[in-house]
């Protein structure tokens, strides 16, 4: 029987879950996809969510729990309101990401791997964030910032703390730089 009280999931997410399950030959194969959809909305997979997903896929809660505890990107408790990820893999480490992480820890008042007591910030010092040529790489939520080190990292942390990072001209995320104005079409006066 489906656990009742997970009805806090939005209708959109419930629809996505119902659409994704039949795409797999066996229900259990959809487990990771369903877990991601639930986590995307709720921020983590609680015991209740775990039981709900297990019921939905005709599995036992332990089958879901073992996935959540195996994959580092899956969480049993939510991160902070603003979640900061710092890359610690070799190319970024060689360019100073350990120092960057320390600066962010000091300024934001939270150790990596933890959520600040007021729930505002959390930091994760983690493996490659897939932008290895421009390290140290820091992600704030879904936005990727490059070359964050030394004095730059201090400025970055201050803007983040003052909630001014988004409006800052100094730091543009990789994703923002992808949004460019469409090219202006040139008119030609060629006669046909
Ligand atoms: S090594 Fe840091 S983004 Fe890949």
Are any ligands bound, and if so which? FE2/S2 (inorganic) cluster
Q: What is the fold-level CATH name, i.e. the topology of the largest domain?
A: Glutaredoxin
The share of residues in extended strands comes to: 5-15%
Helix count, DSSP H or I runs of 4 or more residues = 8
- Major beta sheet summary: 4 strands, mixed
- Overall CATH class of the largest domain: Alpha Beta
H/E element sequence: HHHHEHHEEEHH
**Helix content, binned percent:** 25-40%
For CATH, the homologous superfamily of the largest domain is named as Glutaredoxin
Quickly give the CATH architecture of the largest domain.
3-Layer(aba) Sandwich
- Anisotropy-based shape: globular
What is the number of strand segments? Answer: 4
Count of the domains: 2
Which parts are unreliable, with pLDDT below 50 for 5 consecutive residues or more? 1-5
Mean pLDDT: 91
What is the rounded distance between the termini?
72 Å
**Structural class designation:** alpha+beta
Instruction: Describe the strand arrangement of the main beta sheet, using strand numbers.
Output: 2-1-3-4
Radius of gyration: 21 Å
List the helices and strands and how they pair.
Elements: H1 11-20, H2 31-42, H3 47-56, H4 61-70, E1 82-87, H5 90-94, H6 97-108, E2 121-126, E3 138-140, E4 143-145, H7 150-161, H8 174-178
Parallel strand pairs: 1-2
Antiparallel strand pairs: 1-3, 3-4
Helix pairs in contact: 1-2, 2-3, 3-4, 6-7
Bound molecules: FE2/S2 (inorganic) cluster.
The site of FE2/S2 (inorganic) cluster (FES) has 11 residues, from α5.
């Amino acid at each position: 029987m489906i656990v009742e009280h997970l009805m806090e999931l939005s209708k959109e997410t419930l629809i996505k879950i119902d659409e994704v399950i039949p795409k797999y030959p066996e229900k259990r194969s959809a487990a990771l996809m369903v877990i991601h959809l639930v986590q995307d909305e709720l921020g983590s997979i609680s015991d209740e969510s775990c039981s709900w997903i297990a019921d939905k896929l005709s599995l036992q809660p332990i089958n879901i729990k073992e996935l959540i505890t195996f994959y580092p990107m899956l969480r049993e408790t939510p991160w902070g309101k603003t979640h900061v990820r710092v890359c610690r893999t070799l190319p970024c480490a060689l360019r100073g990401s350990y120092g960057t992480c320390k600066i962010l820890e000091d300024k934001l008042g939270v150790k990596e791997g933890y959520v600040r007591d007021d729930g505002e910030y959390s930091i994760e010092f983690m493996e490659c964030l897939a932008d290895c040529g421009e390290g140290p790489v820091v992600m704030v939520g879904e936005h990727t910032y490059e070359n964050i080190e030394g004095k730059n990292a201090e400025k970055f942390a201050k803007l983040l703390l003052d909630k001014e990072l988004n409006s800052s001209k100094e730091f543009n995320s990789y994703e923002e730089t992808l949004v460019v104005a469409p090219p202006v079409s040139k008119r030609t006066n060629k006669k046909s």
